[in-house]
């Protein structure tokens, strides 16, 4: 089947490459000419494990190509995916749908034969209705249907998630469109696919409900961690103790610096706004967003406390900047607020991240970047581990102690054991232990 992926970012590029790998004929379209040029030269615009090889193999096989020309790119395609960004709108926190609607407009002008327009971007309830209205208005004769197919992949594990998803949610109310999408996803499964067909609005809301639930789970355990610190309990044991209950489940119960990234912060906010507009406020999610927001600067204060209550004139080594390992994505990373808090208090920041430097430089000022963790630690008064990259999981602790001015580590991911740190003479604090 011929597929057009409009928007070739984290979601569009990974989805496009995976569909091609399953044998479909995919064109990835993006209005960013630099991005398309790089892709044509097999230079990945993002860091995602395995993506370069997957793209190269499918380009070689003639199943994957790139263009900036939407009209050309969607020719003959039965499925037109919209995978552009839906960031928070400045000022009010609603999802900014201008990119989605711009694409709908362009599609309308270029449509010739029947095609399913599939919204893969995370969009508020009712966006599918509006996309349909826009296309119909601009091109009253067009033969098309609009479906919702939210994406659940995780950055850092995106290819595996796309190829072996827990479920595929399709919001579609048109039999022809449903048939196209079933055929498109069929190669993912040998037996029965966890394929769920619902009304379009239900599919749109399902994505927000999923992210809000996961954000709630993270925030819940983070608050338990704070309580553990006050009462002398261990949050990792609490998490295990509740997670072994199948009704709760053990995933997403790692206490840490608060959630970040390109999805949870903006999606919780957009859900809150939608719910308020419909007079059905989601109070739990409102609280989750508030608690999480406050937590990031609180983690900065935790580092200040570990440094004896004052970081003015001191050097803080920051290990990890991206919002999680195995991505270069810095969008809403907790590291940003933590570093700003420390800078506000007068600290000098020296940071190392295996892949995030380029993106970090766009959002953080006055940071001294190093090319390995020990260079960041050398001469530092306190270190904070923000992102649990593999490179930080087995640091040479004797070396850490010898290069730091005052060996002190704040481990916001609970990578290390307190006893181990004590043995090496490093002052240590984790989260909720
Ligand atoms: P992204 O910013 O990485 O990519 C979006 C791309 O769309 C950019 O390359 C941009 O140039 C392009 N674009 C914008 N307007 C365009 C237009 N008119 N024509 C062609 N291209 C255009 O964003 P992303 O992280 O891939 O997210 C895309 C959507 O998927 C968002 O709604 C997001 O919430 C959702 N989502 C993201 C993830 C994730 O992990 N990143 C996971 C699930 C869902």
TrEMBL record:
Active site per database record: 263 (nucleophile)
Binding of substrate, residues: 152-155, 207, 252-256, 260, 324
Keyword Cell membrane set for record: no
EC class of the enzyme, as a word: oxidoreductase
Pathway given in the UniProt record: Nucleotide-sugar biosynthesis; UDP-alpha-D-glucuronate biosynthesis; UDP-alpha-D-glucuronate from UDP-alpha-D-glucose: step 1/1
All residue ranges annotated as the UDP-glucose/GDP-mannose dehydrogenase C-terminal domain in the record: 317-418
Stored PROSITE patterns: PROKAR_LIPOPROTEIN (PS51257)
Catalytic reactions on record: UDP-alpha-D-glucose + 2 NAD(+) + H2O = UDP-alpha-D-glucuronate + 2 NADH + 3 H(+)
Keywords: NAD, Oxidoreductase
Record-level Gene Ontology MF annotations: NAD binding; UDP-glucose 6-dehydrogenase activity
Enzyme Commission code: 1.1.1.22
InterPro entries (UniProt xref): 6-PGluconate_DH-like_C_sf (IPR008927), NAD(P)-bd_dom_sf (IPR036291), UDP-Glc/GDP-Man (IPR017476), UDP-Glc/GDP-Man_DH_C (IPR014027), UDP-Glc/GDP-Man_DH_C_sf (IPR036220), UDP-Glc/GDP-Man_DH_dimer (IPR014026), UDP-Glc/GDP-Man_DH_N (IPR001732), UDPglc_DH_bac (IPR028357)
Residues noted as binding NAD(+) in the record, renumbered to the chain: 30, 35, 86, 122, 155, 266, 331
Name assigned to this protein: UDP-glucose 6-dehydrogenase
